Amino acid sequence: MSITVKQLHPLFVGEVSGVDLAQPLSAADHDAIAAAIDRYAVVVFHDQRLTDDQQIDFARHFGPIHSSAQKARHRGIRHRLARDEIADISNLDGDSQVLDVNHRRRLDWLANRLWHTDASFRAVPGALSMLYAHVVPPEGGNTEFADLRAAYDDLPDATKKLLDGLVAEHSIWHSRGQLGVTEYTPDELASLPPVPQRVVRTHPGSKRKTLYLAAHASHILGMPVADGRLLLLDLVEHATQPKYVHAHSWRQGDLVIWDNRCTMHRARPFDTTQVRDLRRVTTADVASTLEQAA
Ligand code: OGA
Ligand code: MN
Hints:
By secondary structure, this protein is an alpha+beta fold. The chain has one domain: Clavaminate synthase-like (Double-stranded beta-helix, 4-Layer Sandwich), CATH 3.60.130.10. It is about 25% helix and about 25% strand. The chain has helices spanning about 25-40, 50-60, 70-75, 105-110, 150-155, 155-165, 170-180, 185-190, 225-240; strands spanning about 5, 15, 40-45, 65, 85-90, 125-135, 145, 165-170, 195-200, 200, 210, 215-220, 245-250, 255-260, 265, 275-285. The chain is globular, with a radius of gyration of 18 Å. It binds N-oxalylglycine and manganese (II) ion. N-oxalylglycine (OGA) binds near residues 89, 131, 143, 267 and 278.
């Protein structure tokens, strides 16, 4: 079997066939998948059967793993999944019951419904996220992706010039605060202080310039907060026009990899009394965006 890729959107998103990700990954398959990620930014695999350990082993081929920030954030809450490398993206509690509507982990997780890129609020942000579907609800619960390379390419030259060298402050508390979710302990707040990230960066694989945006970005350094926030809101509005967006409808056994360095994504609504069990492994970027090419 050899890997083939079918493009699902005029700009990005490749559907990859011809590989069983539960098996040891050959060098040729690794290289084909890495090339597909650089080209398509989001890649989709169907009909996979992965344990948590296999999902982690697969991800390790693509970089060091960011251990779950969620656990730093929710000390004292019992977790369903044993391995720190897995972020629990389900709506289930430590006993595998659907989270109560007011459960603090549920309220925190609702921030995934805002356009974002993973872990931009950490000094060394997320690179590749790999989300695997164990159980999907009967309807809804899509994930949408936006191509921030294409969105950057289409900006007027004057805007590109304005953005040149700008740095935004990112904080996980900013994305939560937009939803009125503010009940975090002083320890939690102190564990993830705000970090600076470039607004425009060059993707190391494709060498394409791209916007780097997220609901975590609150303002632009060196600009009045209000001006910076308005600029970020305008950029997110531009970058999430339908022409840049692809919706993924989940099937059990799907693994979707997205490149946080050049995309945004958001979860869409579903009936949250139904089980949705998705689990994510994320690789770490090599350094802060400030230490990488603009
Ligand atoms: C994530 C995320 C969206 C979804 O796993 O990082 O934002 O649809 N997920 O669950
Ligand atoms: Mn996310």
